[in-house]
Amino acid sequence: MFFEPAANPAFFGPEHVQYRDTLRQFVAREIVPFIDEWEAAGCVPRELYHKAADIGLLGVGFPEEYGGTPADEFMKIVVSEELARAGAGGVSAALGSHTIGLPPIVAVGSAELRQRVAPAVIAGEKISALAITEPGGGSDVAALRTTAVRDGDVYVVNGEKTFITSGVRADYITCAVRTDPQAKGADGISLLLIEGDTPGLERSALQKMGWHASDTATLRFDDCRVPIGNLVGAENAGFRSIMLNFNSERLGMAVMAVMYAQVCLDEAVEWARGRHTFGQPLASRQVIRHKLVDMATRIDSARTLAYELAHCVQHGIGPMNELVARTCMLKIVATQTMQFCADQAVQILGGMGFMRGTRAERIYREVKVMMIGGGSEEIMKDLAARQIGF
Length: 390
Prior knowledge:
The protein is α+β, with helices and mostly antiparallel strands. It has three domains: 5-122, Butyryl-Coa Dehydrogenase, subunit A, domain 1, CATH 1.10.540.10; 128-236, Butyryl-CoA Dehydrogenase, subunit A, domain 2, CATH 2.40.110; 240-388, Butyryl-CoA Dehydrogenase, subunit A, domain 3, CATH 1.20.140.10. It is 51% helix and 15% strand. Strand 9 and strand 10 (280-281) form a beta hairpin. The longest helix has 37 residues, at 238-274. It is globular. The two termini are 39 Å apart. The relative contact order is 0.12.
């Protein structure tokens, strides 16, 4: 691989390298051989969560008291990169849905709620999901309409969520609701943990362009009665938790996007060296070498930005508004790099790049979800502009 990430001692110590080796072996053994099977099935097997838990994968970044392993930003990067190395975004999304569903519970949930939920998810026994997006709202979190009205010792929830990763099978759904129907915008929003077997919860599986190995759903809440003990944090104070969660999600998505671009480059190089045209290897053609260098240049630039930003986040370097803006800009650069490299790889592979089974073809179909998910490119630019003061 061009510029192997693990070789950079400025960011990765021996513990990072050791876990990268463990995780790379796990991905090669437990994921890569089964990707096509899981893509056809539309989900990964529950057994995979148990296997991932056995090597500590699901607990990276979570407190030890719940079975997790505290980790710095670069250990999280190791996880994102090595899962993405498989070139199957659906698998990464399925295994990683708890990384956006569980943090609000651990950060602001009650002691009872944390103990009830976190250990089971980290052990691979339960699946966690985050439900924010609504059919009429998209990235406009402040416009959400799903309501939770207090009725004695329960909240009665009504509304709809869509594009929810792991939504078909999630046991625990961290859901954004409006607990003050009179409030506008970001005010009056709370987070509730809604359990998967709650009466009145209906789920509809969605058919997608990519990420086929990840189950994705529309959720409908029809008078779902949720115990008040499932409130995550303070009532009407959920918006800030949602926003903080997004920053981590966007950094992780950017890192994964760069690795998907790397996977495209690696496959393109392998193909160009083995494919012969008019008696010569494809890689001997200057036009092909230039394409490969263009890909490598963008990958190296985006990865360097990601590592430098992760270093700043880890050490609190710079004001928060600038870190938020840079995270937005990084996601844009990283996903555009992924888009460019996927397109170039398919072009270099030619007819084979149009065939199911190549990594470039799969990644080409998954580009748009990376550019839209976690905040679209347009939203990222506008948010960055506001943070900077443009």
